[in-house]
Amino acid sequence: MTDAAPAPWPTDGPSPGTSRAVTLTDLLRVPMHRLRLVAAVAMVGLLAALGYVLLVPAALSASAVVAVRPVVTDAFTPSGAGADRAVNMNVESGIATGTEVVQQLAEFAGGDPRDIRDALEVEVPTGGQILRFTYQAREAHQAVQSANRAAEAYLSVRRTMYEQQRAEMLRSYDASITKVAAQQTALQKRANTAKDSAAGDALVAELAGINNQLTQLNAARTEIAAVDVNPGWVTQTAEKALVTSAGHRPLYLVAGLLGGALVGVVLAYLWESTDRRVRSVADGREASGLPLLGTVRRPAFRGSPRAVDADIRYVAMAVAERVRQPARVALVTAREDATPLTAGLAVALAVDGREVFVADDSGRIDRLRASVLADRGRLPIDPSRPLVPKPRPAGSTPAAGATTESTPARRPSPHPPGARPSTDPDATLTLPRVASARPENSRVVTPDEVVVGVGSVRFGTWRQGADHGLVLFNAPPAESDERGVAVARQGSAVVVVERDRTRQSDLRRLVERLRAAGVTPLGFVLTRNGRA
User: Which helix (H) or strand (E) holds 355?
Assistant: First the structure.
C-alpha cells in the first residue's frame, strides 16, 4: 500500500444536533422501494373488484314518479304563489319510506323488510311536489313491479290517512248537529206551550238562532264531505324499457385498483417502520456512525459498467490512504455477500503495482477468481501488455553504437540438416535450436496468481496469506460467522453496506460488535445489490 501516514478522516456529514427536514421525496421513497408490495396489494384490490363485477350480477333500478297534490275544499280554485309550500315534501318523503309502505312491499315481494328498505329510494326534487320512487333488484321485472307497487302503496296509505281525517271531522259535525237539533226540538215544544206573548216571543227568537246555527253546521258538514282526499297521481310508471343498471360497473375496477394501492402504501409504511433498510448515505452514517469511503452505483446500462468500476477505484484510493503495508483489511457485512466488491478492490489496488492476496475461507475462491478476471478485462489501460516497438521508417539513421557493416545474407541450403542421411559413420547429427517461448524479462506466474497491470492478485485461505504484505479478506456474513470480526482485530475493517437490502438494525449491531472487539473500522462503502 502507500507509505502515507494515516490522517483523521472527516465525517463530512451533518452534526448530530441538526435535524434534517422531511421532503416529498422522503415520503415517496418508501412506497417506491416497496413497489412490489404496493403493486401486489393493488392487483389484489383490482382482482377483488373484477371478481365482484363478474360474479355478482348487476343491480337494476326502475323509477316511478308520483305528483303530490294538496287536499283542498275547492279543487278549481287557483293556487297562490306559495303552491310549493302547500304540501310539506319532507313529511311526504317520510311517509313514502315509512313502515306501512315497506310492509306492503314486503308482503307483495315476499322479502325481508330490511332488504326492501335498503333497495327503495325516494327522491324529492327541490322546489317541486314530485316523489321519485327508485327500486333496485337483480331482475328487471322485479324492479319494475316493486317501483310501481311502492308508488301505489304510498298513494293508498296517504288516501287512507286523509279519509280517516275526513271521517273524524264528519263525526264531530254530526255530533254537533245532533246536539243542536235536540235543542231545537226542545225550544219548539216550549214555544208551542207558551201562554205569555212575551215569553213566546223570546222562545221564537232563540229558536231562530238555533235554526241558523244548525244551518251553518249542515253547510260545513256538506263542504267537508265534498272534499277530494286524493293525495296525488302516478305520472310515470316504471317500465322494462326504462330500467337502467344501478351504478357504473367500470368504476368498481378503478375503485378497487386505487383502494388496493392506498392499502399497499399503508402496508409499505408499516413494514418500513418495523424493517428499516439503509436507503441513502445519510441513513448509513446515522446507523453506523462511520465515515463514507465511497459509493458504488448501479450502471445506467448493464452492458457499460465503467461507472461502477470507476467508483470501485475511488474506494480503493480511499482505503489505500488509510492503511500501510503490511495491511490486513477485512471486508465485513451483516448478512450480504461482499465477493464482487472484494474482487473489484483487489483489481483496483493491484493495477498500480501492488501484490494483493485475496483470502477467503468460505469456498468462494472460484467466484473471486472469475470476478477478478472479468474486472481485469474492463481496465481502461493494462500496463501488463508488452509495448510493440514501432517500425523504423525507410532511410532513417541507425542508432549510435550500431554495427555499420551489414552481415551478408546466407543462402539457405537446399538440404537442411537431417533431411539427407550422411554416409559418414562419424558424422554428428545437428538439431535445430528451439527458441524459448517465454521472454527473458517476464516473471514466473504461479497457478493461483492473476497478473493485473504491473501487480498481481493471488488467492488462498487466510493462513496462506500470512506472509503477504497486503491481504484482503472476503469475510462471511457477520450475523452467522464471526471470522470477519476476528480477522479485523489483526488489521482493519471496511463495512460493506448494500443499499435497500442492509437493515439498519443489523448495521448497528455489526458496528457495535466491531468496536466491542477493539476494531476501529475505516468506514463504510455503500453498494447496490452487491456490485452494481
Answer: strand 355-359
